[in-house]
Amino acid sequence: MTGLRLLAALALAGCAASAPGGGAPGGAEPCPEGVAPAGAEWRLVRAEGFTFCVPRAWRPMGEPAGPGLDPAAWSGDGGTGAWGAGPYRAREAGPVRVEVREGERRAAGEVRRFSESIGGASADLWDDRIGDRRFTGAQWTRPRPVHLAGEASGARGAALQLDVYRTVRFERR
Fold it and tell me: Long-range CB contacts (< 8 A, 24+ apart) of 121-130?
């Protein structure tokens, strides 16, 4: 009987020591070395046909997107973001009020579009400012159409979201 209790205790200890998602604490698998910015602690996110990394402090929003996948939406550092399969479809944010004081030279908004090679494929990125809100995103048409898009409360959050997009890696078929 004592041997059975010891075996049960060892089995429970083994289950508690191995967390889901690759054994990292809290189920978060660390980002592969060389993918995330140096010196930062980031976690791996499994999406449909690709992976990417987010800062460890970011939190998932909602349920997993499917078997073996992480949730599609994430939040942290003053912003939110989500991944999706297929081409990006902009959502209507509704009216945004922007006040520009007399004599101020700052434009009410700014649109920035650029392309980069990310994950071995060409990505179209954007970083748009409307007032103090930032809308960022990246979309790929090959090897499969996928996108990431986010909203941040400032330039720092938008830059961090762009860093997240640069960690995309596609699964080999």
Answer: 121/170, 123/165, 123/168, 125/162, 125/165, 127/158, 127/162, 129/155, 129/158, 130/93, 130/96, 130/98
Neighbours of 48 (CB within 10 A): 16
* Tokens read off for 29: 């698998």
> Do residues 76 and 59 touch, judged by C-beta distance below 8 A?
yes
Q: Are 167 and 36 in contact (CB under 8 A)?
A: yes
Q: What is the DSSP letter of 30?
A: B
Q: Which residue has the higher pLDDT, 168 or 22?
A: 168
Task: Tell me if the pTM is above 0.85.
Answer: no
C-alpha closest to that of 59 among 40, 43, 35, 47: 43
30-65: pLDDT as tens digits: 999 999 988 889 999 999 999 999 999 999 999 999
Whether cis (ω within 30° of 0) applies to the bond prior to 143 is yes
Spatial distance between the Cα atoms of 117 and 115, rounded to a whole number of angstroms? 7
Mean pLDDT is lowest, of 13-22, 68-77, 104-113, 125-134, for: 13-22
> Which pair of structure tokens corresponds to residue 134?
């930032």
The mean predicted confidence, pLDDT, of the chain is 83
